[in-house]
Design a protein that fits this description.
Blueprint (H helix, E strand, L loop, with lengths): L2 H22 L14 H16 L5 E8 L2 E12 L4 E2 L6 E2 L4 H14 L21 E3 L2 E3 L7 H6 L12 H10 L8 H5 L20 H13 L3 H13 L19 E5 L2 E6 L20 E2 L1 H12 L3 E2 L2 E2 L3 H8 L11 E2 L2 E2 L3 E3 L4 E3 L14 E4 L5 E5 L4 E6 L2 E2 L4 H12 L4
Parallel strand pairs: 7-19
Antiparallel strand pairs: 1-2, 1-18, 2-3, 4-9, 5-6, 7-8, 10-11, 12-13, 14-15, 15-16, 16-17, 17-18
Helix pairs in contact: 2-11, 3-7
Length: 418
C-alpha cells in the first residue's frame, strides 16, 4: 500500500473505531478489582448466562454490572435474532416495556422540582373529567374519599389497573374507553378514564396498573410538551441516551432484537424485528411501557440515579427527589407489592422503583435497601446503594420471568470483595 493510501486508511480506521466505541458503550469501564469486585467470580455470570441459553430459557441477552460508578462487566450472550443467526451485541436494541416507568417518574419529579406540578395535586387539576372517577365497592360505584393524586400515580396507590382484573365492570370499562390504545394520543386517552372504576380508595392499597401512563399525560400537560419531546430534550440528550425512544428508526432497525415467547420448555418467535410495530412511531406514547433502549443508554440512566440525580456534570434530578424514588412511600396499611396471589413480602414502592424494606422468603438473595424494577420481556435492573452496585440484565422473553435475575443475583453479590 502506498504511504498516502496507508495514511488515509489509518485515519479512517481510527475515526470509525472511535465513533463505533463511543456509540456502543459511552460508559466508564474499569477492572473489577479496582472497585472491590472479584473478576474470577464475575466470570460465573458468563457461565450462568450460557447455561440459560443452552436450556432454551432465553435466546440471548446482556448483563452489565457497575460498582462505584464504573462498569466492571459488560457481557453479551447468544442471539438477538435466532431465525437469522444474528448475535447479541453491545448496541443491540431491546423493548424495555415497564422499565419506561422509572423514566416517566423522573420526568414528573423534575417538573415537581420546577414548581410546574405538585405531588399532592388531584388528577382533575390536569384532566377535569377525572373528577368523576368512582370506586368499585362490592359491585357498587361509590364516591371516593378523596381524588387520586400525582403521588398515587408515582407509587401505584391510585386504584387504576390494567383492565385485567377479576372485576368485569373494570375490565369492560377499560375496553370501552380504549385505554392504552396505540391509536390514541396520551391526552385524548384521558377523556375516557373518568368512566373507569378504581379498584380501591386512593392511597389505601397497591396495585400495578396504568398509573404511570396517566402520569405521562400529567407530564405533557404540566410541561406543555409531548412526552417524547420531554424525554428527548430533558433526559435523553443530557444523559447521551441516543438510542432510546418510543420506536426504532429505520437506520437502527438492523440492531433491533427479536422477542420470544417461552412455553412448554421452548422458545418461539413472538415479534419479528423486521416487521415489528416498534418500527413505527406510535400515536400513543406509553409512559408506562413504550420505550426501546440499549444496555449503554439505560445503564447511564441508572448510574445517574445511583449518583443522586447527576451524571458527568448533567444534573437531571435533585437528591431529595431521588430519595423519594428509592425509599418506600407506601403506607403499612397498603401492604407489600402484590401481583394476584403473589405477595412480595418485604418489598414496598417508592416514587418510581420497588424498594426492599426487609428480608423474607421472596427473593432471598436480595438485600435491604435494594431498589429496581423490570419489563414485560424479562428485562430487569437493581441497585444496592450500600454496596454501590448497579446491575442491568436485558433479554427478550415473554411472559416475564425472574430466571435471569435470580440466577445471577447471588453470584454478583458474592463477587463483592468489600
Amino acid at each position: 500500500m502506498k504511504p498516502y493510501l496507508l495514511f488515509v486508511f489509518l485515519v479512517h480506521a481510527f475515526f470509525y473505531s472511535t465513533v463505533l466505541s463511543e456509540s456502543v458503550s459511552p460508559l466508564k469501564m474499569i477492572k473489577p478489582d479496582k472497585v472491590g469486585m472479584d473478576a474470577e467470580k464475575l466470570k460465573m455470570v458468563d457461565q450462568k448466562m450460557e447455561e440459560l441459553i443452552k436450556e432454551d430459557r432465553l435466546a440471548g441477552g446482556i448483563v452489565v454490572v457497575a460498582r462505584k460508578g464504573k462498569v466492571v462487566h459488560f457481557g453479551t450472550y447468544g442471539k438477538r435474532d435466532r431465525e437469522n443467526n444474528l448475535p447479541v451485541e453491545k448496541d443491540t436494541i431491546f423493548r424495555i416495556y415497564s422499565m419506561t416507568k422509572a423514566i416517566t417518574s423522573v420526568a414528573a419529579l423534575m417538573l415537581s422540582e420546577e414548581g410546574k406540578l405538585n405531588l399532592d395535586d388531584p388528577l382533575s387539576k390536569y384532566f377535569p373529567s377525572l373528577k368523576e372517577m368512582k370506586v368499585l365497592n362490592k359491585g357498587e360505584l361509590v364516591e371516593p374519599n378523596r381524588e387520586v393524586t400525582v403521588a398515587d400515580l408515582l407509587r401505584h396507590t391510585s386504584g387504576l389497573t390494567y383492565g385485567r382484573t377479576p372485576h368485569k365492570e373494570i375490565n369492560q370499562a377499560h375496553k370501552n374507553a380504549g385505554i392504552l390504545d396505540r391509536g390514541k394520543k396520551v391526552i385524548p386517552m384521558m377523556n375516557g378514564m373518568g368512566k373507569v372504576p378504581l379498584l380501591f380508595e386512593p392511597g389505601s392499597d397497591w396495585v400495578y396498573g396504568c398509573s404511570t401512563d396517566v402520569l405521562g399525560g400529567v407530564v405533557e400537560v404540566a410541561s406543555e410538551m409531548s412526552l417524547d419531546q420531554f424525554f428527548r430534550d430533558r433526559i435523553f440528550k443530557p444523559l447521551k441516551m441516543k438510542d432510546t425512544g418510543f420506536y426504532v428508526p429505520a437506520n437502527n432497525a438492523t440492531r433491533f432484537a427479536a422477542n420470544y415467547n417461552y412455553k412448554d420448555g421452548k422458545l418461539t418467535l413472538k415479534d419479528d424485528p423486521k416487521t415489528s410495530r416498534y418500527l413505527e412511531n406510535p400515536t400513543f406514547q406509553s409512559g408506562g411501557g413504550g420505550l426501546c433502549s440499549t444496555a449503554s443508554d439505560y445503564m447511564r440512566f441508572l448510574l445517574m440515579i445511583e449518583n443522586g440525580g447527576k451524571l458527568e456534570g448533567a444534573r437531571i434530578l435533585g437528591k431529595k427527589s431521588v430519595k423519594l424514588m428509592t425509599t418506600n412511600q407506601v403506607s403499612k396499611d397498603a401492604g407489600w407489592v402484590t401481583f394476584g396471589n403473589q405477595i412480595r413480602e418485604g418489598v414496598g414502592f417508592g416514587y418510581g422503583f420497588s424498594v426492599r424494606v426487609k428480608m423474607s422468603d421472596w427473593d432471598p438473595d436480595g438485600r435491604v435497601g435494594e431498589f429496581g424494577w423490570g419489563g414485560a420481556a424479562s428485562t430487569h435492573y437493581w441497585i444496592s446503594p450500600k454496596d454501590d452496585l448497579v446491575v442491568l440484565t436485558l433479554e427478550q422473553v415473554m411472559p416475564y420471568s425472574f430466571n435471569t435475575e435470580w440466577a445471577l443475583k447471588g453470584l454478583i453479590y458474592d463477587a463483592l470483595l468489600d
